[in-house]
DNA sequence: CAAACGTGGGA
DNA sequence: TTCCCAAGTTT
C-alpha cells in the first residue's frame, strides 16, 4: 500500500502543472460536464471535441435542450455512435427540469437514477461539477490502479468496478473533482495501455507494477471468446449382438484421447457414412435424439441417428458391449447420448 | 451477467 | 486482415 498523502499530493500537483486534454471544457456547469461525460463514454477525447462544441452552441442550456425536437438533437450526435446516449441524455435533462427545478441534483443517488447516468457518469459529474467525493472509474482508472497495486483483477468482469471504486475512495482527497480528472488524465497521457511513459510518471514511486516490471501485463483483461456453434451427426451403430460402435478422438485438441460414438459432419449422407465405416447400415429412425453441449468456448449441437448393421468393425473403430462402456473414457455429451439410448433404445 | 450497442484509429 | 482500445450503460 502506498502512502496516501504523498500519492494524492503528487498526482494533484502534476495535474495542476500540466496541460489538460480538454481545455475546451473548462467549466463547472453541471449541464456541460454531464453532456461531455456522456459523449466521452467509449469515445476518445479528440473525437468528442467537435461534437461537444457544436452541441453546446446549438443547445447551450438545459432549457434549450428540453425544448428541442428529438430528431434535431439526434442529428447533432450523428457519427458519434451509441445513439441511445443522446436520447437518454435529453430524457435525463428533461427529468431534471421537471423533478429538480432545472438544477442538476447535488445528490449522487438522485443523479444516478436519471436516464443514461451510470456509476462512472455519476462520479464524474458529482465530483467535477460539485466536488463531491464519488469515484469515477473508467478504463484509465482500471489501468492506473491495476498498475499501482500490481493488481491482477480481471477488469473484464462486471464485479471489477466496485473493486476499483474502493481503491479510489481509499485515497480520495478533498479535491475530489481534480483527483478524478487527474487519474484519468494520467491514464490517458502517461499510464497508457501500450507505451506507458513511466519516466514521466508523478507517482512512479508508488507503482508496484513498475517495481516488479509487470507494467505491460496490467491490467489483466480476459478476452471475450467468440463462442462458435457446431452441428454434427452422431451415429449410434448397433450390431447383431447389441454392441455399440466407438472410436477414439485424436490425442490433441478438444477432448483429446477420449472415446466417442462416430461423429460426422451434419451434411454427411448415408452413403458417405457407409464408406467411412466400411459397413452396410440400416437406419432405425429418422432422428433418434438431439443433444446440445456447451464448452467454455464453443457449442455443440448433436443430432443422433440410430443404425443397425451385421458387419464387423474395421480400422480404429470398435464394437463394445454395454458392460464395457465403463472401460473407456467418454465426454459428458456422449454419455448423455448413451444414457438416452439405454432408456429409450432397444 | 453476458451481450449488445457505433465508430474511428493504431498496431 | 484482425484485434484492441476509447473518460460506459442498459437489458
From TrEMBL:
**Where are the membrane-spanning stretches?**
none
- What Pfam families does the entry give? EndIII_4Fe-2S, HhH-GPD, NUDIX_4
Q: Which Gene3D superfamilies match?
A: Helix-hairpin-Helix base-excision DNA repair enzymes (C-terminal) (1.10.1670.10), Hypothetical protein, domain 2 (1.10.340.30), Nucleoside Triphosphate Pyrophosphohydrolase (3.90.79.10)
EC number from the UniProt entry: 3.2.2.31
Job description of the protein? Adenine glycosylase active on G-A mispairs.
Cofactor notes: Binds 1 [4Fe-4S] cluster.
What's the cofactor? [4Fe-4S] cluster
* UniProt keyword list: 4Fe-4S, DNA damage, DNA repair, Glycosidase, Hydrolase, Iron, Iron-sulfur, Metal-binding
Q: Which InterPro entries match?
A: A/G_AdeGlyc_MutY, DNA_glycosylase, Endonuclease3_FeS-loop_motif, HhH-GPD_domain, HhH_base_excis_C, MIG/MutY, MutY_C, NUDIX_hydrolase-like_dom_sf
* Domain HhH-GPD residues, every copy: 39-189
**Know the name of this protein?**
Adenine DNA glycosylase
Catalytic function, reaction form: Hydrolyzes free adenine bases from 7,8-dihydro-8-oxoguanine:adenine mismatched double-stranded DNA, leaving an apurinic site
Name the family the entry cites. Answer: Belongs to the Nth/MutY family.
Amino acid at each position: 500500500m502506498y502512502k496516501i498523502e504523498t500519492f494524492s499530493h503528487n498526482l494533484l500537483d502534476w495535474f495542476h502543472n500540466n496541460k489538460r486534454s480538454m481545455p475546451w471544457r473548462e467549466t463547472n456547469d453541471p449541464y456541460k460536464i454531464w453532456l461531455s461525460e456522456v459523449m466521452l463514454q467509449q469515445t476518445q477525447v479528440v473525437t468528442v471535441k467537435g461534437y461537444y462544441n457544436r452541441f453546446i452552441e446549438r443547445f447551450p442550456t438545459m432549457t434549450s435542450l428540453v425544448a428541442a425536437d428529438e430528431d434535431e438533437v439526434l442529428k447533432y450526435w450523428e457519427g458519434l455512435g451509441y445513439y441511445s446516449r443522446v436520447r437518454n441524455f435529453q430524457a435525463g435533462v428533461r427529468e431534471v427540469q421537471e423533478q429538480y427545478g432545472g438544477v442538476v441534483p447535488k445528490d449522487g443517488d438522485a443523479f444516478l437514477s436519471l436516464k443514461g447516468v451510470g456509476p462512472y457518469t455519476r462520479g464524474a459529474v458529482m465530483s467535477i461539477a460539485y466536488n463531491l467525493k464519488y469515484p469515477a472509474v473508467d478504463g484509465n482508472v482500471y489501468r492506473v490502479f491495476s498498475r499501482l497495486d500490481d493488481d491482477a483483477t480481471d477488469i473484464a468482469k462486471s464485479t471489477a468496478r466496485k473493486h476499483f471504486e474502493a481503491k479510489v475512495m481509499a485515497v480520495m482527497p478533498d479535491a475530489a473533482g481534480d483527483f478524478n480528472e487527474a487519474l484519468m488524465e494520467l491514464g490517458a497521457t502517461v499510464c497508457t495501455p501500450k507505451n506507458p511513459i513511466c519516466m514521466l510518471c508523478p507517482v512512479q514511486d508508488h507503482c508496484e507494477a513498475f517495481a516488479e516490471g509487470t507494467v505491460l501485463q496490467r491490467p489483466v483483461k480476459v478476452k471475450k471468446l467468440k463462442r462458435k456453434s457446431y452441428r454434427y451427426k452422431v451415429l449410434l451403430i448397433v450390431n447383431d449382438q447389441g454392441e455399440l460402435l466407438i472410436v477414439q478422438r485424436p490425442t490433441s485438441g478438444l477432448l483429446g484421447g477420449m472415446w466417442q460414438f462416430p461423429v460426422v459432419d451434419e451434411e454427411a449422407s448415408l452413403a458417405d457414412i457407409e464408406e467411412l465405416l466400411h459397413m452396410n447400415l440400416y437406419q432405425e429412425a429418422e432422428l433418434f435424439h438431439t443433444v446440445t453441449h456447451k464448452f467454455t468456448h464453443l457449442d455443440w449441437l448433436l443430432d443422433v441417428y440410430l443404425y443397425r448393421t451385421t458387419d464387423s468393425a474395421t480400422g480404429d473403430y470398435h464394437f463394445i458391449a454395454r458392460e464395457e462402456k465403463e472401460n473407456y473414457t467418454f465426454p459428458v455429451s456422449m454419455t448423455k447420448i448413451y444414457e438416452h439410448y439405454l432408456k429409450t433404445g432397444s
